[in-house]
Write a structure and sequence with these properties.
Distance between the termini: 40 Å
Radius of gyration: 13 Å
Number of helices: 0
Strand content: over 45%
Length: about 120
């Protein structure tokens, strides 16, 4: 069993930065890829960034490439999402997920709100 707890959300001006953290419990966490997803009001949840179990591979949605960076520290059971050059359209609830298949995550966190004001 894996439990995920996100933190680091908040309100920021456009152009600003935030770093989200996802703290995991359970040693099994290290066996899963982990990703960040987001859901804006009235929209479907979408993939933002993902990182392999070892941390050696990562990928990003086109909308965040060059602005967001995902990283993981397996010694701390934590995954991070560094978000720079934030835009109002990045406003959403951000969720951390652990998965064997990105299309069907095994575990979800409760989400953290990110609001970018113009």
């Amino acid at each position: 069993q894996v439990q995920l707890v996100e933190s680091g959300g908040g309100v920021v001006l456009a152009g600003g930065s935030l770093r989200l953290s996802c703290a995991a419990s359970g040693r099994a966490f290290r066996n899963y890829a982990t990703g960040w997803f987001r859901q804006a009001p009235g929209k479907e949840r979408e993939f933002v960034a993902g990182i392999s179990a070892s941390g050696s591979l990562s990928d990003y949605a086109d909308s965040v490439k060059g602005r967001f960076t995902i990283a993981r520290d397996n010694a701390k059971n934590t995954v991070y999402l560094q978000m720079n050059s934030l835009k109002p359209e990045d406003t959403a609830v951000y969720y951390c997920a652990a998965y064997s298949s990105r299309s069907n995550p095994n575990y979800w966190g409760q989400g953290t709100q990110v609001t970018v004001s113009s």
